[in-house]
Design a protein that fits this description.
Blueprint (H helix, E strand, L loop, with lengths): L6 E5 L2 H13 L3 E5 L10 H6 L3 E3 L3 H4 L5 E4 L8 H8 L4 E2 L1 H8 L4 E6 L4 H16 L3 E5 L5 H7 L9 E5 L2 H4 L9 E4 L7 H4 L2 H9 L10 E5 L3 H9 L5 E5 L8 E4 L2 E4 L2 E5 L8 H17 L3 H10 L8 E6 L2 E5 L6 H8 L6 E6 L8 H4 L5 E7 L3 H8 L5 E2 L3 H11 L5 E4 L12 H13 L2
Parallel strand pairs: 1-2, 1-4, 2-3, 4-5, 6-8, 6-9, 7-8, 9-10, 10-11, 16-20, 17-18, 17-20, 18-19
Antiparallel strand pairs: 12-13, 13-14, 15-16
Length: 447
């Protein structure tokens, strides 16, 4: 599409909206920004005015304007009256990912979606591709970096042949048109986002959009251990070449046998190379490796990256091993579901550090998953309450994270795991979960 002089409405600013505006401005579009914030509260106001952007509100009158295209921030829901009016009027609506795909020169796209595990899998794919393709490998999408930003910063309007790992959410998939990855995967399908899509069926269907435009020359990595996913690819057939992965079946294209990861009959790596704990992470790794094999990456690059990969920061992140005790930072475990997921990654000997800001969350789910836990240590504003609601008098209560680490060191024996997975936010003693996680790593690395 030639954007010169085209009237484009950008709905919602944030980082992705700003990135889309910069691309559209470069291409000569006439841009209107519809933003819920007051104009004086927009920190990018000067830049927007310099780019000649007209800034309006999100009233129905604005939606009745004359536009050739709408670029919608994925955080803006399609069912709000403003968007409904645009659809009723037949205005084409896309997200910034679709915009970037349409205007960039041909690139190699690896698209990763699913309910859980997207960030870990996408990050590992990028780490592997970076080993082979260096500065031509990029990670973006739902992970926090807009694809339009990569297009601008890496001159992809004029340069082709880059390798772009794209973590893509259901919100971003709903409004694709021509987006066409070389390799794609849906890691898993579990209940989520019913409030937005109206039904589980609609949510699951949205994930299948990732392969809608693929062809037989492309590769779709299918998790054949996920029964729900299998039913949806049966209902909405994959047009690409399908490669299966399984942790349970040895007849899959990628499988586990005798402690090794085997893809298309080739031993790719020993499972001892994987430093991420838990069966869910083993699944993430085999999917990531399969994506890279589909692109043509050699085993040596894969092995190097997997051996060095300790996970996404603050998400069951391996910190160090000292005297046979392994320390993990799961500071992003700011709710009970996240802590349950972390606990499922370990079999035994866990010393669990919980506590922080009091959100009043019931601890029933965590209490039901303490089979691997050796000791619970509570800290911070709600530490005492959390210990009381999980293990009672069998737990330990301290004031802050440093004291919690000190107590854990006294208790821990070779083979044990010290896991920070607080179950709640950090605002009693820290500004954010990142600051809490960084402090935990500092304390552990100083032992």
């Amino acid at each position: 599409m030639d954007f010169q002089g085209k009237r484009v409405l950008v709905v919602g600013l944030a980082r992705s909206g700003m990135a889309a505006i910069k691309v559209l401005s470069t291409l000569g579009a006439t841009i209107t920004l519809s933003e819920s914030k007051k104009k004086e509260d927009i920190k990018e106001l000067d830049t927007l005015l310099d780019l000649g952007v007209t800034i309006v509100d999100q009233s129905i009158e604005v939606a009745c304007g004359d536009y050739d295209l709408c670029v919608k921030n994925p955080g803006v829901h399609n069912d709000i009256p403003f968007m409904v009016k645009l659809y009723e009027r037949g205005v084409p609506v896309i997200t910034e990912i679709e915009l970037a795909f349409q205007v960039a020169q041909p690139q190699h796209f690896i698209a990763i979606t699913g309910t859980n595990g997207k960030t870990t899998t996408s990050t590992l794919v990028h780490e592997i591709l970076s080993r082979k393709y260096g500065s031509k490998a990029h990670l973006c999408g739902n992970i926090g970096i807009p694809l339009c930003e990569i297009v601008m910063n890496e001159n992809l309007l004029n340069e082709s042949g880059h390798y772009i790992t794209l973590e893509i959410s259901n919100y971003q998939l709903v409004n694709i048109d021509k987006f066409h990855p070389d390799v794609a995967t849906i890691i898993n399908l579990t209940p989520d986002h019913i409030d937005v899509h109206g039904s589980l069926d609609a949510y699951y269907k949205s994930k299948t959009e990732v392969y809608r435009n693929m062809t037989a020359d492309d590769t779709f990595i299918l998790n054949s251990d996920d029964e729900t996913l299998l039913s949806y690819v049966d209902k909405y057939p994959v047009p690409a070449t399908v490669k299966t992965i399984s942790l349970n079946r040895e007849d899959a294209d990628a499988t586990i046998r005798d402690g090794q990861m085997i893809i298309d009959g080739d031993v790719v790596l020993d499972l001892k190379s994987i430093r991420l704990p838990g069966r869910h992470n083993l699944q993430n790794v085999i999917i990531a490796v399969s994506c890279c094999k589909a692109i043509g990456v050699e085993n040596s690059f894969i092995k190097e990256a997997v051996e060095a990969f300790t996970g996404v920061e603050h998400r069951i992140e391996f910190v160090r091993e000292l005297n046979g005790v392994r320390y993990y930072n799961d500071s992003k475990g700011t709710n009970t579901d996240a802590t349950v997921t972390a606990l499922k990654a370990f079999d035994r000997g866990v010393i669990l550090l919980i506590g922080g800001f009091e959100k009043g969350l019931p601890m029933d789910d965590v209490k039901a998953h303490l089979g691997c836990v050796k000791k619970v240590i509570g800290f911070g504003a709600c530490g005492e309450r959390l210990v009381c609601d999980t293990v009672g008098d069998d737990g330990i209560v301290v004031t802050d994270l440093k004291e919690a680490v000190d107590e854990a060191v006294k208790i821990a024996e070779a083979g044990d795991t010290v896991l920070l997975s607080p179950t709640t936010s950090s605002f009693d003693q820290y500004s954010c979960f990142e600051e809490r996680g960084d402090h935990f790593k500092e304390l552990v690395n100083a032992l």
